[in-house]
Amino acid sequence: MTPAMPLLQAAGHPMHEHDGGASSLQTVLPLVAVALVAAGYLALWRRGRRRNPERGPGRTRAAAFLAGCALLALALSAPVDAFAGRDFRGHMLQHLIIGMYAPVALVLGAPITVLLRAAPAARARRMTGVLRSLPLRIVAHPVTALVLSAGTLPLVYFTPLYNAAMEHPGLHMALHVHFLLSGCLFAWVIAGPDPAPSRPGVLARLVVLGAAVAVHATVSQLIYGGFLIDVHAPIAQVRGGAELMYYGGDVAELLLAFALVATWRPTRRPAERPAPA
C-alpha cells in the first residue's frame, strides 16, 4: 500500500490500558455470551433436524456458524483483547475478526432458517411476518447495510470516538457490538443463505460490495498517510493497523464475494410450447 504522505499526522500518544478488574469482566462476559449463542444454535439446529432430516441447514451450515463463534471467542480472548488495548494493530486485528470474518461465518450458518425450522408453526409465521415488515425491509436494504458497516468507519477513526473507546470499557464494548451487528447485517443482505426482504439481484449486490471495498481501501489509505485521523497511537502502530485493514479487509470481502457467487443460480427461460394444431 502506497502512503498518501511521507509523514503521518496521527498523535503519538500511547493508548490507555483498562483497569484490571474491569478488563477481566469485560473479557469473561462476552465469552460466556458467545458460548450461550453457540449452544442455543446447536439446540435449535438439532430440533429442526429431528423434525425433518431431509430439509433445513445441514452439518456444513452448523460447522460454519460454530466457526464464527470460535472466531469471536478468539477475538475476545484475554491475549487478543490485551493486545488490542495497548496497540492499534491489535485493535485493527480485533476489528477485522469481529466485524468481517466472524460475521461471514455466522451468516453462512443460516441462523434465521435454523430458527424458523425449529420454531412452532404459528411462531414461525409471526417471525416471517417480521422479516417482511417495512422497517426490516429498510434496515436490510444493501445500501443501508453498507452505510451502517463501512460507512461508519470514518466516524470511528476520523473523530475522537476511537480514543474515547480506549478510555471507557463500556464504549469499547459498544463498538465491538456495532462492528459485529453491522458486519452480520452486511454479510446477510449481500450473500446470506437466509431469506432477506430487500435483497436485489446478484449484479446490484456486487456493486454494493465493490463500494464497500472502495470505502475500506480509502479509509485505510487515509489512516496510513495520516490524513484526517484522530488516533492516539505511535506512528508505526497506526501504519501497521492501516495495512492490516487494507489487506485483511480485501481477503474478507473476497470471501464474501465467493459466498455471493455461490448463491447465484442462472434464470432459465421457460421452454416454448408448440403451437396448438
| Number of alpha- plus pi-helical segments | 13
Q: What structural class do you assign from the helix and strand content?
A: mainly alpha
Strand content: under 5%
Task: Specify the biggest β-sheet.
Answer: none
The average pLDDT is 85
Which percent bin holds the helix content?
over 70%
User: Structurally, how many domains make up the residues?
Assistant: 1
Low-confidence stretches: 1-18, 269-274
The ordered H/E elements are HHHHHHHHHHHHH
N/C terminus separation: 69 Å
Structural overview:
The structure is a single chain. By secondary structure, this protein is mostly helical. The chain has one domain. Helices cover 72% and strands 0% of the residues. The protein is built from 13 helices and no strands. The chain has helices at residues 20-51, 59-76, 78-86, 88-108, 111-118, 121-131, 134-139, 142-149, 153-157, 161-167, 169-191, 202-225, 235-262. The longest helix has 32 residues, at 20-51. The termini are far apart. The model is unreliable at 1-18 and 269-274 (pLDDT under 50).
